[in-house]
Amino acid sequence: MTKEITREILTVAMPKGRIFDEAVALLRRANYPLPPEFEKSRKLIIDSPDAGMRFILAKPMDVPTYVEHGVADVGVAGKDVLLEEKRDVYEVLDLKISPCYMAVAALPTYNPKADIASKIATKYPNLASTYFREQGEQVEIIKLNGSIELAPIVGLADRIVDIVSTGRTLKENGLIELETMMPITSRFVVNPVSYRMKSLQIDEMVERISAVVEGGEGS
Ligand code: PRP
Q1: What is the enclosing helix (H) or strand (E) of 120?
Q2: Ligand 1 centre distance from Cα of residue 210 (Å)
Q3: What global pTM score does this model have?
Q4: Fewer CB within 10 Å, N side or C side of the chain?
Q5: Which GO CC terms are listed, alphabetically (predicted)?
Q6: Which residue ranges form the domains of the chain, and what is each CATH number?
């Protein structure tokens, strides 16, 4: 007896905030019919029956957690978040959206020689400690949840590790970049079990998005 292949609903975890609009635009260019109120709604779960999808709107840092636990089959997450969270998800596609980079920055008065026990403020404690350990530098990490650039100005930290996009936040707060750490873009991530159980939909989604990312149809 041949097993009938049924199309199940695919649950997609989307990051609220700066990546969201670009991710939605990418899905629309891949011809997924998302409801027009998608961007404006305050709802955290949005069903798109026509696309065969349910979207859950999460904090960017939490997207890999939803995908790892399988409550979302797939998701869109920044490389920064993936490096920080180290969740058990497959990173299958570089979406090449929201490009930025991770950098170390400080006030121009920062003096490395006078720096005995350097304090680093960051939203990315794991990523930052790995980076400085690899550099053979001992530092104290101070975890913050945002407005990282404030920390050196008020004397909470000597340096910061944060993402830089336009560079405006650093500039307007009088900070200078000391080191570029790594480029960052958003990635398409998949739950390993979903990849087996819903391979039909997931493969198709990866193919359609990939065609747009690579400058194919609809882009
Ligand atoms: C991010 C990042 C920097 C800023 C960089 O913060 O943490 O502060 O954007 O962007 P720019 O180089 O274009 O100025 P976000 O706006 O996400 O808010 P947050 O400070 O609350 O994390």
Answers
A1: strand 118-122
A2: 28
A3: 0.92
A4: N
A5: cytoplasm
A6: 2-98+185-214 (3.40.190.10), 100-183 (3.40.190.10)
